[in-house]
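Lab notes, practical 5.
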Amino acid sequence: MTWDASKYFAKAKRYWSKASGLPRDDDQFLLYVSFFCEFFIRGALVLKSPILNADLSEDSLLYAAGADSSDNAKTVGLRVAITRLKAAYPDLKALNFDPIQVLVDARNRELHGENDEISAQDANQILPAVYLLAVKGTQSTQLDLVDLMGEEDANTASMAANAFLKDRSQRVRSDVRNAKDRFYERSPQEQAELRKKEVGFGYAVQTNGAHLKAHKCPACGSQAVLGGKPVGVSREFLRDGSLMYETRVLPTAFICNVCDLKLNGLAELMAAGFPHEITTLDERDPVEFFNVDPMDYVDTDEIIREYGEEMNGGYQDE
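Output from the prediction step:
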């Protein structure tokens, strides 16, 4: 016996499903994401060769080779596992998985320490690297990304990974700098007049389904509009006595009416430092969600009887 890649991939799939159903601000979300990453990486190593998953002890190497039991076998640490992953799969060599290592280190400190390490991590800083691992990793291992992550998350992962790989940072930095220079070259009076064009809302959904969020402009610092399209939702969950769900929105454009900075597409937005994803919480009507018919809980005979009593003097107005 030795390690089985299919079992690692099955665990990765299961933990991603758990993570995907949670709102991004749930403490367990990044915990499950960390398990997804580790199990996927180890599955990819074992798929290439179980030896790559073993530390250098004799028991571990023998187990990896199928020559001994697993009683004393140990897997290699994740930092070394990532190094071996890049060596085993050349297409992954140039990718930066440091945010994943940071997340897993935080998870390990959480498991063995007294501090809340996971909640201190920023999902927006970590998820692009996770998506990159999933997209490029499934390509290298010839796995089905949709089967691994589900259709909605697979589409989001593909768009985020492609945007990251395009690396529009140099051009976007130039656009932001030019917009900033143009704005601050104006007189204080002109600047003050232009700032009156700042957006005056926090969040809005248009009739066509587009989501709009007020966001600070990277050029002039004014409140401008970040727009996007919905790409998925979480499972329903209870929060403060209400049935809620999270909508995930992929940013598509940014427009500042103050300095005229315009950015289009996720690649440009990510290069400018915008998040790869916008999330918003909405309340679900329990009656509609659970398909409840209120009339099932209404005794019409009792209502008629009480009404009759009132009409016949059973109710006295004091």
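Observations recorded by the TA: Strands lie at 203-205, 211-216, 223-233, 237-239, 242-255, 262-264, 278-283. The first strand starts at residue 203 and ends at 205.
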